[in-house]
Amino acid sequence: MASVRGHLLSWTTLLPLVALVLLALTWGRTLGPVPVALVAIALAGTVLAAVHHAEVVAHRVGEPYGSLVLAVAVTVIEVALIVTMMASGGEKADTLARDTVFAAVMITTNGIVGLSLLVGARRYGETRFHPEGSGAALATVGTLATLSLVLPTFTTSTPGPGFSAPQLAFAASASLVLYATFVMTQTVRHRDFFLPVDADGETREEEHAEPPSARTTLVSLVLLLVALVTVVGLAKVESPAIEAGVRAAGLPQSFVGVVIALLILAPETLAAVRAARRDRMQISLNLAYGSAIASIGLTIPVIALASVWLKGPLLLGLGPTHIVLLALTVVVSVLTVVPGRATRLQGGVHLVLLAGFLVLAMNP
User: Fold this and answer.
1) DSSP of 170-201, one letter per residue?
2) More confident: 105 or 242
3) Sodium/calcium exchanger membrane region domain location, by residue (predicted)?
4) Beta-carbon neighbour count of residue 87 at 10 Å?
């Protein structure tokens, strides 16, 4: 009982609740410098709390279910934020879904993967993972991104980089089918392809530390959802300050979406890096590619449905620069995952690709 009480009174429990109260007090208000700073501190602390509770849930349910829980939870809330912002209209609302999803894909496939590889290889010399599982996930990411973000640039049924109604329905249906097939493969049919491997490339046995109790896991699951909702909400509260900073720096307005995507994906990034530090690179890749798949596979169907009542066009097609970056990312990622092992070099290459994306986002 004392341990449960201690768990309930820990900072990882109290901070998301305090941040939720702060979100309620600041939502819809114009904030001064001091409240903006408080919201930023609460946001950073809540991200750390979300990672902790995700790891508790992951330890209880085992892999790869734990990675799936965090990826889906973050993506569902991300989708809700996109729809809310699109419904409110305003500048760039017609390209918001495209910009956010593409930013998420680049951050996950290059940022999370690159940082995890660099951290893991720096500590262990060489990182190992299942090429079958990571390769299947990467193929799904590439297919989803091409169907949803590249093809609209080249279709001719409607003006602009968008789909016609039948084309959008097909893209949404295909996204759902691919996402469901991937989840089935990851959790049922070929679950062993998504488990950590040892130095010989063999599937590693699950860690034998005693899992948390059902009650502790349930509390952590609820707090994880609270923390994720709060992270997204506080990111939206901070967005006016972010927009003001972007304008003051002379950056394009679309860069706001990149900053918000970085904030929303912070829990997954920290969780992936911590897994890499424990020599569990497969878990890091599960988080990265699983998040990219969920970001496209869940966002596009919801946006397709929402477009029935949302005003204005829905522009999904990427420009030439972003198509080149996406193609290069897929090629480099294939060369990274096919051998089943990687060094610091691969991590550095992915991080340079992310840096290139960020530079071009700031200075198109």
Assistant:
1) HHHHHHHHHHHHHHHIIIIITGGGGS-B-TTS
2) 105
3) 37-187, 220-361
4) 12
* Among the ranges given (31-35, 44-48, 221-225, 256-260), the one the predictor scored with the smallest mean pLDDT: 256-260
The pLDDT tens digits of the residues spanning 81-94 come to: 677 667 665 556 67
The tokens describing 206, both together, are 């699950």
Q: Which domains does the chain have, with CATH numbers?
A: 2-362 (1.20.1420.30)
The two three-digit tokens of residue 343, written as one number: 């060094």
CB neighbour class for 205 (10 Å; exposed up to 12, middle 13-18, buried from 19): exposed
- CA distance linking residue 205 with residue 128, whole number of Å: 15
Number of H helices, E strands in the chain: 14, 2
Q: Which residue has the tokens 């290059």?
A: 110
Token pair for residue 315? 């522009």
Crossing angle of helices 96-106/320-337, nearest 10°? 30
Answer whether 110's CB lies under 8 Å from 267's CB: no
Residue 256 sits at the vertex; the CA angle it makes with 93 and 99, to the nearest 5 degrees, is 50
